[in-house]
Design brief:
Layout: H1 17-27, H2 29-61, H3 65-115, H4 119-122, H5 125-166, H6 168-215, H7 217-223, H8 226-279, H9 284-325, E1 347-349, E2 354-356, E3 361-366, H10 369-379, E4 390-392, E5 395-396, H11 402-408, E6 409-412, E7 421-422, H12 423-427, H13 435-444, H14 448-452, E8 461-462, H15 471-485, E9 489-493, H16 501-514, E10 519-523, H17 527-530, E11 535-540, E12 543-548, H18 550-556, H19 558-565
Parallel strand pairs: 3-10, 3-11, 6-9, 9-10
Antiparallel strand pairs: 1-2, 1-4, 4-5, 7-8, 11-12
Length: 569
């Protein structure tokens, strides 16, 4: 089993759809080149069979037993070569298809993660769905067909040379007929290209509208707009159906041309060959060979037409992928990323004056919860801000590559989601956590009862968006996932807001030990959590106005005391 693309798919060339397809093929150039070479041998082996059969017939007519035996063995050898090269070529072709499709998935998922909250504002949901479902298939098809397309071209050239060397008129029929057939096919490919593009755009818009309707269904029912939206969706759906019918009509004409045009070429070659055989210009064996050549040419001609079709579809799909890859988010990458500081470093948020010491558990208690959430977003570089507003070891976060920030700082808030599939894979996507680490994270998040209630424990399947779990259960599972990620800096936003007091006390008591030696920031106003922090920072009006232990601040800072005890002024 050959390995599929590595974790890092590379930096794509998204200056245009053709450049992206070439870049994708070059990433697996060895297997792509190997598939092309095998396809050439495979097709040429088929092209030589009619010549061998014709020579065998002539040897039989001349009663030349040695020659007949030699040509029979040659045909057997070509058959063995075709079988071996055909099997190996197909294996490489499947690998090339999978590699191209999976690499496109990796790139689009990585780009979606980079765009984050900006993704819905930059791209329609339907367009993203179309990329992840159909466009990756067409990109893979475009890379896959390159091998057979190359073999078909070489085979046609070989057949033309053989026919020209035997009979110039018949050879000219092939040499002139093939480009003519391809020209006719290209005339059909062009409108197919346009109609496919229009269909895909309409499909993306309709999928996006469906997602919007489902998300806002409760609101629509409340204002009485459900019928109006249903009517609009129905009209767009019928328009999409019409666009699909137009695509299918062009495709059916193209399929018919793929059968008719090579058939006409076969008829012309057979008719001319028969006349030349009657005149004695060619032998009976050569006539059989020419018929075989004409019949064989149907396959490479259909392959070339298929290649044109798949390259066109791949170009349309790559244009959509390139548009997504070229989309910029709210957080632009620095032109020349700075070097990240080595080892644990102090994290400083200048707008609030918050200083997070490395290796400590720092709690942020804000009089207004939105201030704490804003600080968490800045610490994780999830929101744009003033240049140099947040620094890590004296290096501005916005001067670091976004990937470097994400690897070192993880912000876990209550907007997290559980994904459909086995719970173990959801909590530990990389599969790097062993049994002891998993058990420790589950214990720290006080999530044993959640797992005990599942029929298969960690191997149980999670329902869509984790809807089978209560809010408190989901919150504890999110915490398990964050602890297993084990980032250098972990920022938790209200990690115990949905659990009962007893569970909150257990989490607060175990969190510090679970993150020993690592930097942890907890945004919370829970006295149970604050009492376990190494250091508490009180934020009022967006600024850090006091710092110390929970008990010290209760005595020295009235605002802090009112905030954490929920007292009214």
């Amino acid at each position: 089993m050959r390995p599929l693309p590595p974790e890092d798919p590379g930096t794509p060339d998204h200056r245009g759809p053709a450049r992206f397809l070439v870049w994708t093929a070059r990433r697996t150039w060895r297997s792509v080149t190997g598939a092309m070479a095998l396809a050439v041998i495979w097709f040429v082996g088929q092209a030589l069979i009619p010549a061998v059969v014709g020579r065998a017939i002539d040897a039989l007519a001349a009663r030349d037993a040695p020659a007949l035996t030699a040509w029979t063995l040659a045909g057997l050898g070509l058959g063995v070569v075709q079988a071996l090269t055909g099997i190996t070529r197909h294996r490489l072709a499947v690998y090339n298809w999978l590699a191209a499709a999976m690499r496109t998935v990796q790139l689009t998922v990585r780009q979606a993660a980079r765009l984050g909250g900006a993704l819905p504002r930059r791209l329609d949901a339907g367009e993203v769905v179309a990329i992840s479902t159909s466009d990756i298939v067409h990109v893979g098809d475009a890379v896959d067909i390159s091998a057979r397309g190359t073999g078909a071209v070489v085979a046609i050239v070989v057949v033309a040379v053989i026919m020209l060397s035997t009979s110039v008129p018949l050879g000219l029929v092939v040499v002139l007929g093939v480009p003519l057939l391809m020209a006719v096919a290209s005339l059909l490919i062009r409108p197919l290209h346009r109609r496919q593009q229009a269909y895909r755009d309409a499909q993306g818009r309709l999928t996006g509208r469906a997602a919007d309707v489902v998300a806002g269904l409760r609101v629509l029912r409340g204002v009485g707009g459900e019928d109006a939206m249903a009517a609009a969706y129905r009209a767009e759906s019928q328009a999409l159906r019409g666009a699909g019918v137009r695509v299918a009509r062009t495709e059916s004409v193209l399929e018919a041309a793929q059968v008719l045009l090579p058939g006409l070429l076969l008829a012309v070659v057979t008719w001319l060959g028969a006349r030349f055989a009657i005149d004695g210009s060619i032998t009976v064996g050569q006539l059989v060979s020419f018929y075989g050549y004409a019949a064989f040419l149907v396959a490479p001609l259909r392959t070339l037409t298929e290649a044109l079709d798949k390259f066109t579809r791949g170009h349309v799909a790559a244009r959509r992928v390139v548009r997504m890859l070229g989309t910029t988010g709210d957080l632009p990458e620095p032109a020349a990323p700075a070097a990240a500081p080595g080892g644990p470093a102090e994290l400083v948020d200048a707008p609030s004056g918050l200083q997070v010491r490395p290796g400590e558990l720092t709690a942020v208690a804000a009089a207004v919860p939105a201030d704490a959430a804003a600080i968490a977003d800045r610490l994780g570089r999830h929101a744009p801000g003033a240049p140099g507003a947040v620094t890590l070891g004296g290096v501005p976060l916005d001067a670091l590559a976004l990937d470097a920030v994400r690897r070192r700082i993880l912000v876990a808030d209550n907007d997290a989601r559980l994904f459909t599939g086995p719970l173990r894979a959801d909590l530990d996507p990389d599969g790097a956590a062993g049994g002891e680490r998993m058990a420790a994270a589950v214990a720290a998040a006080a999530a044993h009862d959640v797992l005990d209630a599942l029929p298969d424990g960690l191997d149980s399947d999670v329902a869509e968006r984790g809807r089978s779990f209560s809010g408190g259960q989901q919150q504890r599972l999110w915490l398990v996932r964050a602890l297993l990620a084990d980032p250098e800096v972990l920022v938790l936003v209200e990690p115990t807001s949905a659990v009962d007091a007893h569970t909150e006390a257990r989490i607060a008591a175990r969190l510090g030990a679970a993150r020993a030696g690592r930097t942890t920031v907890v945004c919370s106003t829970s006295p149970l959590v604050l009492d376990r922090a190494d250091r508490v920072v009180y934020v009022e009006g967006g600024r850090a106005v006091a710092a110390g232990t929970h008990r010290d601040l209760l005595d020295s800072c009235p605002g802090y005391a009112r905030t954490v005890t929920r007292e009214e002024d």
